[in-house]
Design goal:
The chain is α/β, with parallel strands linked by helices. It contains 9 helices and 12 strands. Helices cover 42% and strands 21% of the residues. Strand 11 and strand 12 form a beta hairpin. The protein starts with a helix and ends with a strand. 30% of the residues are buried.
Length: 247
Amino acid sequence: MARAAESVGLLAGKGTIMKRILVVEDEASIRELVTLNLKMAGWEVLEAASAEQALELMNQNPPCDVALLDIMLPGMDGFSLCETIRRGDANIGIIMASAKGQEADKIRGLSIGADDYITKPFSVSELVARVEALARRVRRASGESGEPDQLVSGPFVLDEKSRVLYKSGKPIDLTQVEFQIMELFFRNPGTALVREKILEGVWGKGYFGDVKIVDVNIRRLRMKIEDEPSNPQHILTVWGYGYRWNA
């Protein structure tokens, strides 16, 4: 077991960095334009038209790396939302956006926990660049390396730091062995993995137990992640060979 992570690396391809941003903007046209460009830049975007909706989304999904908050919102304003988010997450990067462009707004936003400030109308390319720069600073400040902390595949997110699997934002409790099997699948999407390779990748080369232990753990994983374990859509059997991950 001590060599499991090392063995997984032998089969691993390059993981996908899961970048997630919360965009809170009540003007639908602006929100859609920003969201489109962020998605094109590789971000997963949570969209909200109000602070209240934003807080609901944050409670229902894995943590975001960055939040883009409009100041003028219906109900709770962007300043109050910034304070609320910052109280719950010291690491998230926060950018405030406002059409006012007033120095007082900028000072207030930065004083209550925002990391950056952008004035409307703004260039979308500039916004994306600032989001990327802030994400890099947040990652460095938290002591994270360049290796991805999260792998994403369809509705699933595998958080390698917290060792939790999420399906559509809902956490799924896994044993360490189950988690390592999922790591192997996520790093080899669409690839048929023979049972012996899964055994070696998770249990290590020094493990001489029965290969059927792979089948037992696959059955347990299907019970946890599949909507219908008897008709799996994600962990597929490759008859006479092994298993293949399908997002």
